[in-house]
Amino acid sequence: KVRTKEDDNTIFVQGSSDRVGIGTSSPNQKLHIAGGLSISQSTAGQIGSVFEAPTQAVQTLRFDSQRFRFWAGGSERLTILSASGNVGIGVTDPDRPLEVVSSGDYLAKFYSTDNKAIIEVRDNDTTGMISAENDKLSLGAYPGVNANNLNIDLSNDNVGIGTSAPTKKLE
Which of 79, 90, 111, 114 has the most CB atoms less than 10 A away? Predict the structure, then answer.
C-alpha cells in the first residue's frame, strides 16, 4: 500500500487476488483506476486520450495514425479517419463526412423539442429544406411549412403545391 499525506488509497496492491487499485482500496479488476486516466505520447505523431469515469464500461478504445475507433459489444461501432475526418457509424472505412450503416430500417433520428424541425441540405449553389411542423412535412427551398414548398398534411395525407394547408389529396 502506498500512501500520501492526504490519501490512504493512492496505490493499493491486493496480493490475494493480484489486483492493483489506484485511488481505491478495493480493486475489482487486475488494474482498477478510480477517477480519470490520461495516456499520452509527446513525440511527433502524438497518440493520446483522456478517459473519465463512464457510467457504463468502455470495452475498447483504439487509435493510431490512421483512425480513432470505439469498440463495444465486440464490434467496431464508431470510426473517425485521421486524414479525412470522415466519421463512420457501423462502418470501418467511411467514404463520406458521415456514413451510417445498419441492418435496421431506421438509420437516424433528428428530434427537435419545439414544434419545428428542419434539416438543411446544401451544395455550392443550392439549398433545400426538409421540415416537420404542426403535423405537416415540407420539402422545398424554404424552412418550415411554406406555400412555396411541397407540403404534406400528415393528419389527412393531403398534398399541397403552392399552398401550406392542402384540403384535397393533391392541390
Answer: 79
Predicted TM-score (pTM) of the model is: 0.59
Cα separation, 58 vs 52, in Å, equals 10
- Cell reading at 47: 497518440
61-83 residue pLDDT tens: 667 778 888 877 767 889 999 89
CB neighbours of residue 31 within 10 Å: 10
Q: CA 91 to CA 101: how far, in whole Å? A: 6
pLDDT in tens, 128-160: 999 999 999 999 999 999 999 999 999 999 999
Dist CA 146 CA 130 (whole Å): 11
Exposure string (b/e) for 55-65, b if CB count within 10 Å is 16 or more? eeeeeeeeeee
Question: How far does the chain reach from its first CA to its final CA, in angstroms?
Answer: 79
